[in-house]
Design brief:
heterodimer, A: 471 residues, two-stranded antiparallel sheet, 20 helices, B: mainly alpha, two-stranded antiparallel ribbon, 19 helices, 76% helix, globular
């Protein structure tokens, strides 16, 4: 067995072990732990980049390493690293639990990395549960006034229910095809075209990832978890975890190709409902994180639009947008957690005067928000356009029309954030001091958002090669 | 031309807010470079040769068939010139701005980059990208530096325009997808024979989508409000250039790619345009705020542009493009003179100003020139433009043409009434002693007037230019 194939996972396993030993220490040395975590996760990004072009099968072909999985592993590693960069203060997590915080973040990352490489139903399920359980623990880790517990329980219950759906679906698929390997199932799916078992099984199996992506009707956890979790944890849920979910949906959607219209129409409906519901409810939100939660529901609809085309260009769009979403959503969350440096929940109105308090953060906020809204020349715009283009190519005219109209609706609440940062009466709070790494991070994110929005070619080519691996 | 504003923008990003003079100088220089390049292309364009010239073309995203493809032809050259003139004079007009100077010029240059990009692009992806770049900074420009109900106006404007974009995207993508050519290149797409049904759907989407920005009735309501709220130079850019993006886009994308769709919907376009003309004039009659007066006159003048387009004849298109140019310069002049007066007196009410020419003869002269131009007095650029449009319209749609002409006569009357009330009545004693326009600040206005008169006396300069591309355009339809 080639160790490099399993390189990223092994590396993160080792990293998790380090943190495990750190959790056993008696004295709390938060600062040192943090530095170790940051350095290790930065190394992790390097490792995933080195393993980017690995290819091969592992574990009796239950585990496939290809460009598709490696790109998402890179995205996950990047997500973890980014989240850790803004974790230098963890005001709402008790000092003695901070090592656990790093530990569980790492284990959930491993889970997701294994998830994007799994091509066998049971492996998928086990990997999914590994990543989910870590998150179930992370959410209520926040020291709060009960809101954290509510969030944790909601997350757990809805997660468990969707896991149940998923297992049920997996059993249908297994029962009908007699195999748990995706590669074996795919040819047999065509025989199931005329019976409901295949399509039901597949849709139910996807439920687990609908939950992660907060697609309607598995979206109920999102607002509460976003609000109730610690800012850093939520950042991870909102960025890396979404990317992993998109990856798996792309893998599973290939199975639905045989069902044609019957399969896609279900996804079309979910996509439309998610987009519209998310956008409409986001308008009335006052809490910044809650608003972002609804915006993530709306974005889930956009992702589905790319998935349901089941064409190469649609998958390219979805992969590109998943990477873009990771960056732009992180940008917004970074601003949020820097402004709310004491870990509180930020009301949108509390952004008032940000323009004076920190011009740099407000610039990042504008870029991030505009990117989420899909305003050019940002990665958000390009990604959305690629997805719309492929959906139109696949003949979903009405879906694109509704998506575009939703683009207008969402602008309203995104603009309200910018309005708050720039134009609400300045309450005279002190300026926000940013450390040098964070400043650099701001510039880097801004450069990525604009740069890859304007010059998407390289990423698209990469995504194209990756999409070939799953179709 | 396309590079100068973003370059200036980047330099501005590096400057400190305190270095006000430097900021202005950099903006002026980058606007000046754009203007001189625009003049150069206008002069150097070989009319005898026709077609696309000064082409730049790069592969951008192969997988989706996106190319960076810009070029100049007879149809967009005047509009590039217009943009150059308006941004150059716009920067000069805002020379006195003190509040958040740096950001102001950054957003303004961003907006202009978008405008240049739209006029030059022959690739739908970039066309739309630049279109959005041009539209979005408006929100911030109005919100920060605006006046009168600016929050309402900024939000209304942005949502209207974005709703327009929401129609444009499906329209563009529908064409892209149904062509089967996997390219956003408009010149290639033009060759694709779309089925009539596709053309009809795409055309109406694009007509309404872009029509929002062109202030086509009934989607015009954002426009007067936005004009009133925006700061002077933004009003100039907005009414002078941005609204032209809408009508230009209808011409360049909608009519170019969907000729059959155009023929199907031409009547609707004509009705909307005529309604816009008549409506704009009569609502304008009732206004007392100078900026609202101009705002509604813009609605009616943009109606003339669309009316010209809807005829689908050579004179109509010629006149229509010419009118885009003439109206752009004229409105810029309007807003720049009103802006000057308002900055000094903080009054825009016609009756309160009464007899203002005795106090500020020069500033008033600028306004009066613009008003005369708006009324279509011979010797001004817009006279020829309107003449061409009306000649074409009366031939194709006699009733609409006559209605529009009648409305314009009323419009001329009302322009004169406004001029009389605000500039030739008894002067308002409150404003006696206010300083008139200094030669330096007069310079941008003089440039605008110069352009109006130049093309008023030598319309052939412009018409031959536009014709060189309208003829092949119509053949292609």
């Amino acid at each position: 067995m080639n160790m490099m194939l399993f390189g990223p996972e092994l590396y993160y396993l080792g990293m998790a072990l380090v943190f495990f030993f750190l959790t056993l220490k008696r004295q709390v040395q938060g600062k040192m732990d943090y530095q170790i975590a940051l350095a290790l996760s930065a190394m992790g990004v390097v490792v995933t980049v080195l393993c980017l072009f690995q290819q091969g099968d592992l574990f009796f072909k239950a585990y496939r390493v290809d460009l598709f999985s490696q790109i998402f592993k890179f995205a996950l590693a990047l997500g973890l690293f980014l989240v850790l960069t803004i974790s230098h203060r963890l005001p709402h997590i008790e000092a003695r639990y901070q090592a656990e915080f790093y530990f569980f973040l790492t284990t959930t990352t491993i889970g997701m990395m294994m998830l994007v490489s799994s091509v066998e139903l049971l492996t998928i399920y086990v990997a999914l549960e590994l990543s989910s359980y870590s998150l179930y623990i992370l959410v209520p880790l926040r020291r709060g006034d009960g809101i954290d517990v509510e969030a944790g329980i909601k997350y757990l219950f809805i997660g468990a229910v969707s896991s149940g759906f998923m297992l049920f679906g997996l059993s249908y698929i297994f029962g009908a095809t007699g195999s748990t390997y995706l590669a074996d199932i795919l040819p047999k799916m065509t025989q199931l075209v005329n019976s409901p078992i295949g399509i039901m099984g597949l849709l139910l199996a996807m439920a687990g990832f609908f939950f992660k992506l907060s697609v309607f009707p598995f979206h109920f956890w999102a607002p509460d978890v976003y609000q109730g979790g610690a800012n850093q944890v939520v950042t991870f849920i909102a960025t890396a975890s979404k990317a992993a979910a998109v990856a798996l949906l792309l893998r599973l959607a290939g199975l639905g190709q045989a069902f044609g219209y019957n399969f896609t129409i279900a996804l079309v409906a979910l996509s439309i409902i998610s987009m519209t519901l998310g956008n409409l409810v986001a308008i009335i939100q006052k809490d910044f994180k809650r608003m972002l939660a609804y915006s993530s529901i709306a974005h889930a609809g956009v992702f589905l639009m790319g998935v349901l085309t089941i064409t190469e260009s649609g998958f390219i769009g979805a992969i590109y947008y998943a990477l873009a979403y990771l960056v732009m959503n992180f940008t917004v969350f970074m601003v949020l957690s820097e402004v709310a440096s004491d870990g509180r929940d930020l009301k949108i109105a509390e952004l008032a005067g940000l323009y004076r308090r920190s011009p740099l953060l407000s610039m990042s906020l504008i870029l991030g928000i505009f990117a989420l809204a899909g305003v050019p020349p940002s990665i958000g715009f390009t990604g959305k356009l690629l997805i719309f283009t492929s959906a139109m190519n696949a003949g979903y005219f009405w879906l694109v029309l509704i998506g575009a109209v939703n683009g207008t609706i969402c602008l309203y609440y995104y603009l309200k954030v910018i309005y708050a940062a720039y134009f609400i009466e300045d309450p005279g709070l002190p300026a926000i001091e940013l450390s040098m790494p964070i400043r650099l991070l701001n510039y880097a994110l801004a450069a990525i958002i604009i740069g890859f929005g304007f010059f998407p070619d390289r990423v698209v080519e990469l995504a194209k090669a990756a999409a070939k691996a799953v179709l | 031309m396309l590079v100068a504003p973003p370059l200036g923008l980047l330099i501005l990003l590096c400057l400190k807010n305190e270095q006000k003079f430097l900021i202005r100088a950099v903006s002026l220089v980058s606007a000046g470079i754009s203007l001189s390049l625009a003049i150069y292309t206008f002069v150097a364009y070989d009319k005898a040769l026709g077609g696309l010239q000064f082409v730049e073309k790069y592969e951008w995203v192969k997988t989706f068939g996106i190319t960076f493809f810009v070029g100049v032809e007879g149809m967009n050259a005047p509009l590039l010139l217009l943009t150059g003139i308006v941004i150059f004079t716009g920067v000069l007009t805002m020379w006195e701005l003190e509040d958040r100077t740096k950001e102001y010029f950054i957003w303004m240059l961003a907006l202009v980059t978008g405008v240049f990009g739209v006029f030059m692009s022959y690739d739908m992806f970039f066309f739309f990208l630049f279109y959005e770049i041009a539209v979005v900074p408006m929100y911030i420009l109005i919100l920060v530096w605006g006046s009168t109900r600016k929050e309402y106006a900024a939000m209304k404007l942005t949502l209207y325009l974005m709703a327009g974009s929401g129609l444009i995207i499906p329209g563009i993508l529908l064409l892209y997808a149904s062509s089967g050519l996997n390219t956003f290149n408009m010149v290639i797409l033009h060759g694709a024979r779309f089925s009539p049904w596709i053309q009809k759907v795409a055309f109406v989407l694009l007509l309404f989508g872009f029509g929002v920005l062109a202030a086509v009735w009934p989607f015009h309501t954002w426009s007067p409000v936005g004009h009133v709220a925006a700061p002077t130079a933004v009003s100039m850019l907005h009414a002078g250039v941005l609204m032209k993006l809408g009508s230009f886009a209808i011409l360049r994308v909608a009519m170019y790619l969907c000729p059959a769709g155009f023929q199907y919907w031409a009547n609707l376009m004509m009705v909307l345009a005529t309604t816009g003309i008549v409506y704009g004039v009569f609502v304008g009659l009732a206004q007392t705020d100078l900026k609202y007066v101009i705002g509604y006159s813009s609605v009616s003048h943009m109606g003339i542009v669309c009316l010209g387009l809807s005829t689908g004849t050579m004179d109509g298109l010629n006149g229509s493009v010419f009118q885009m140019f003439a109206h752009g310069i004229m409105t810029a002049l309007f807003f720049s003179s009103v802006g000057y007066i308002y900055d000094r007196t903080h009054v825009r009410d016609i009756h309160k100003l009464g007899g203002f020419s005795k106090i500020m003869p020069v500033a008033s002269a600028f306004f009066i020139t613009a008003a005369l131009c708006g009324a279509g007095v011979p010797g001004m650029a817009s006279f020829w433009a309107e003449l061409l449009v009306f000649v074409a319209t009366v031939k194709v749609y006699p009733v609409a043409g006559l209605l529009a002409i009648a409305a314009l006569v009323v419009g001329a009357l009302f322009a004169l009434r406004v001029v009389q009330n605000s500039f030739y009545n008894e002067p308002n004693p409150k404003f006696v002693g206010y300083e008139d326009v200094s030669p330096f600040l007069g310079l941008p206005r003089m440039i605008l007037i110069g352009a109006l008169i130049l093309f008023g006396f030598f319309p052939q300069l412009m018409v031959s230019m536009i014709k060189s591309s309208v003829v092949p355009f119509l053949q292609g339809m």
